[in-house]
Fold this sequence. Notes:
single chain; alpha/beta; Rossmann fold; seven-stranded mixed sheet; two-stranded parallel ribbon; 8 helices
Amino acid sequence: xxxxxxxxxxxxxxxxxxxxxxxxxxxxxxxxxxxxxxxxxxxxxxxxxxxxxxxxxxxxxxxxxxxxxxxxxxxxxxxxxxxxxxxxxxxxxxxxxxxxxxxxxxxxxxxxxxxxxxxxxxxxxxxxxxxxxxxxxxxxxxxxxxxxxxxxxxxxxxxxxxxxxxxxxxxxxxxxxxxxxxxxxxxxxxxxxxxxxxxxxxxxxxxxxxxxxxxxxxxx
Length: 220
């Protein structure tokens, strides 16, 4: 049986959901390595809807995270509450500001944020079972509240975001767009992706390294 990875999404679109390129690159690399995957998302209402052409909030428009995430997964997606750690060898969270708006309230609460309880219940069992956890873009900021203090992560080198991670008890490591930070003790792998990337190829290099390292760690 091939390795199996759970991929947790937060909608569809960088401003209010999962970053589309980051998600696609993650799924592409998993497939290239012969690793099976299944996408999950919480069945909740989005915090808000952003018109990605103008960057403005779409007044009066309401969307659901699971339904929007299904666009990225080509319909092959399950509610986050159905994720069973026993069925998977690792979990990966692509970025996008849905992580800071739908999976948590980091976008406006900063270091005082709260994380969606369904996400906590999904991720903590992977940590307890010492199964690898990959996070990219803004999602590493959730680690101190998800998994506890003292875990090394990166979002690149933005002082505001890195400062918030430190204020929550996390250990932020500066990192280039094409590299990764690995906390071997906690089996957590992170990369900046579109926190720094200016081209899809830049994001791809770091994301592919993250997935490759997750692949290696599943064998350990």
